Amino acid sequence: MGKKAVVLLSGGLDSATTLALAHHDGFALNTISFDYGQRHQREVDAAASLARYYHVEKQQRVTIDLRSFGASALTSDIPVPHSRSVEEMSYDIPVTYVPARNTVFLSFALAYAEVNGADDIFLGINAIDYSGYPDCRPEYLAAYEQMANLATKASTQDGRTFHFHAPLISMNKAQIIRTGIELRVPYELTWSCYEGDKLACGTCDSCLLRLNGFAEVGRKDPIKYR
Prior knowledge:
With 226 residues, the protein is of the alpha/beta class. The chain has one domain (4-216): HUPs (Rossmann fold), CATH 3.40.50. Helices cover 36% and strands 11% of the residues. Strands 3-2-1-4-5 form a five-stranded parallel beta sheet, with helices on both faces. Strand 1 (4-8), helix 1 (13-24) and strand 2 form a beta-alpha-beta unit. It is globular and about 50 Å long. The mean pLDDT is 96.
């Protein structure tokens, strides 16, 4: 294996594909997942399954409480939207946006990378899919990378340079799935649904985008839906 990388692994389709790309590029993989007070544990369990599948060097699970701030359908009792059209999804930043989540996650990932000697950090953010999440844009990631290289002992004293990789940032869902199919990503191990039932709901924004992506590439989604 090559040099070390930290991969943010949510357990969803995008982060699984990102993990597969880092694996394909020959990085020695270290993953980090978050139990942050989200609606369910399915994605946390999915992340653990993916980490085992790819035989990562270490899967770091971090517990934090973003539910104490709320203000999101994923960390409070605000209802998750269902059965929306793609046009409706793109109208405004949805209630599933978790305030400052990626900034919080990246800070943990940066600390993890600094400690274990990884200069490369991968995350599965996407700027064009639908959400308009402000922390999924290229300019956000570029700014964070600049900050990271100003704010750590590794960069200011030890001569290391951190590089942040978002290989899916300009792909739509179908392109992501095509890439994953080529890399033989075990999508049956992933979980994208915002709800936490035994079967995916099939109607939340995340499920609809996932199903549309598989339909566009002419493949059946391997997870089960209600």
